[in-house]
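Service request form, structural biology core

Requester: graduate student, group of Dr. S.
Request type: structure prediction, single chain
Budget code: on file
Notes: please return the result as structure tokens.

Sequence provided:
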Amino acid sequence: MVLKKSNFLSREIKESLSNKRIDIALAETFPEYSRSRLKKWLENKFVSVDKKIITKPSHKVTFPAVINLTIPDEPLTEDLPEEIELNIIKSTEEYIVLNKPAGLVVHPGAGNKSGTLLNALLFEYPELNKLSRAGIVHRLDKDTSGLMIVARTEESFKHISDQISKRQVVRTYQAFTAGKIERSGKINAPIARDPRNRQKQAVIESGREAISHYKLIENFGFYSHLEVNLETGRTHQIRVHMNHLGCPLIGDPLYGRRRRFAKNTHQKLREVIEGFPRQALHASELSFLDPSMNAEVTFKSKLPSDLVELRENLINQV
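Core staff response, request fulfilled:
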């Protein structure tokens, strides 16, 4: 196997990782690679600490220490490329910004082995098979539309992942709720998997910190249009938080079934909402530090046609 200079990574561990297991230190020090991939490289003698090869996951590291990682020149994803149309907003040597349509799954998984955003990216950018998760650093739910970032290099993957973990990436969403919200506000309510339904998340006191800021854009009788900014990025965060407020997203099949309609909803609008095929949520703005310039860049996406039509129906029925 011929290894290039780019196949060798060397990073100092954080002081907080002192006396932690090497597998934990690896996952936090090299977040661009999956835990399973790092474990395989550890077992195959591709990991050293201060130039001493380590193979046991239980080995403890002490601060200060330098972890050296040798990356085999092999594909990091076994998923197949597929020709699926992508709406690319911007493509640089470091990253891609795209507009994901509603209905497109981000990662292959149970029930979605193909036809995903990841498959489409591998077709359009074959070199992404050398990156963990094909460079996808964050995700949107299948039926949420809008802006996403995809890294094109290991360095930009780590750079953008670090920004997300440090809450430096600004993510703004447009949301339409079944319920009247009269003022802007903040929701600070921890989220964890719902013990009664494994498909759902819920506000649970012992859950992970979750903070959403929402700004009232307009009311349509007892329905609302909000702009929501995420301070954290928990699974289904906006959907769970809006449901927690008693104002679930219009069309949400998982969290909004019990309160699909606000009070005093006319029959025609009921039919519109009943037929709306997804949660009314769109990732409309994304700001982050460009890895090559270390300067903030901002991208915006207009409401897609289905949400424009929904808004018009809400206006007409007031």
